Amino acid sequence: MLKNLYVENFKSIGRRTAVELTPLTVFAGSNSSGKSTLLQSVLLLAQTVQSNVFRRPVVLNGSLTRLGTFSDILSAKADSPQISIGFDLQPRPEESRYLSNHRNIYFSDEQLSRASCVHFEMKFSGGGPGSGVAQLQPELDRVTLRYTPKAEPSGTGKSEIALRRRRGELDDFFTREKVSVSAISLQERASFAFEVEQPTSYKPRWGTPQAQNPKALGVHLQHFLPRYMSFTYDVVDAQCESIYRIFTATGQAAQQSVDGARDLLLSNPEACGFILKIMRAQIERLTDERGDTAASQRVARQFEEIDDNFTVDGLDTFFSDIPAFYRQAIWTAFAEPTVKSTLFATLKRGKKEERRISAGPLPDNLDFSASYVHSFFSERIRYLGPLRDEPKPIYPYGGSIDALDVGTKGESTAAVLDLHRDTEIFYIPSASIKHTLTAPTPIKASLLVAVSDWLQYMGVANDLHTNDQGKLGHELRVSTANSSTLHDLTHVGVGVSQVLPILIQALLVEPGSCLIFEQPELHLHPKVQTKLADFFLSVAILGKQCIIETHSEYMINELRFLSALAPDDSVSKLATVYFVEKGSDGSIYEPLKFNEFGAISNWPDGFFDESEDLAAEIIRAAMNKRAKKSSK
């Protein structure tokens, strides 16, 4: 679930603004006050992650929203030429059943239950009005990704990666780091466009395990998300470590050696002699202790063969063949710090430092964080705009890739309903929403049954039917109140085509999803608007987050009524209403928390007071008219 949003210098928002989100969050306010700005910041993140062009850090114009150029979205109140967008995500253990990472591996219950918060923030810029490409494809300037576990409230268990766009020439940087420019691919160069401020130390979990003292100097990005660390390591150090593993690790160590390790060892007679000296001392010690047995004689013969013809493969074979206690004794001797340091010093003698580039995964918790953010914004965001596709007798097949998405205008509603009409879902029946607010009991039913239930409750339609017409598209027909005759949507009120996509989209998505609705009340009778608030609350209770922009005072008042109706504060904890207004520094988002009695203690000026003001004016006008008539 989206827990917090952080926005700065984006459209109507000037200074940094933090907004806390709840399962049901409603934004209300006057026109052009900034209600859509926060919604568009989420849509910008989602359409960027969903883009197949991974090297684009920010996609301004996509399938969810079209924002124009960078200059169009940079706030007029901005005190810097950078836009900042960030968020906090709160993972939920139950998401492990249906949420997978970028490698198509489902997150485990343990991963999701262990995480308290995943924080992300980025800054990007457009290079000025005349920058051409950068205006349409902004450049990433800074990235912060932070993981906070539940078990470490003190913060000691936090993991963080912080990136900053590198200044200066890359070739100069490579020279300082003693990396050969000729050996660097274009992809590797791109990974060094950002310098790693955090973490200060890095140990690859795989890739080049022999690398000693690796320096994390760059990162491979997928859009704005870090995916792999680019690091440099000393080649000779890695070769020495590879050689050392032969004497300290089980298995086929020789087959895992770093390129050049064999040559480094075999070209250094002094190092070979030192190794043989340590081995001989242990073999002779064990022979003295255990006596001249058949086993000791066999080991002695095998060692003489190594002494006569020293090879890396021969060493590996020797350790595989000798008795375990001989092998363990030799490994214990090489594990001594003085032995290791002497061996490394001997191997390095006369060798110049040379660093190479390699890539490895992010540290474990950060890898989870990046994957979770990617999965959330690519799979769990659903957006339905204020306008609907005009009603049609048959809805042409739109070729939508996502079979669970009704489209931003509801254009795929008929196809999605026809495909999933028999899909079983959990939902809260309309008849029980006001009677079981403390502990509502979801029931299992087909999507068609659930949609029909809520349509009837709202008084919009009694029944609906879909039919796949092949290449022509999908037919959608409904029956209205007091009639059993089915009609296509061109012959019924527009309220059906307005409400139906909302119901289908919200009922079909899984818990943990984030549903964004702009002005869902358009074309709806006040009674339907009121009951729509009941539906949104039922969706939020099921763990599906709803973020709504509205001008409907009927929806707001219904939420207040539900807060008062509930026997406790369960509704007021689920729902938050923000009043949005323009301030001197940009949009201001004032939370109006309902108490358990449905009252708003900080009712702001201009918050749906037109009805009361107009009613008062009517009364005054009527009283004045009556007074004038009485005086005659």
Automatic annotation (TrEMBL):
Highest taxon of source: Bacteria
Location of the Endonuclease GajA/Old nuclease/RecF-like AAA domain: 1-51, 483-556
Transmembrane regions listed in the UniProt entry: none
Location of the DUF3696 domain: 575-617
Pfam families membership: AAA_15, DUF3696
Protein name as catalogued: DUF3696 domain-containing protein
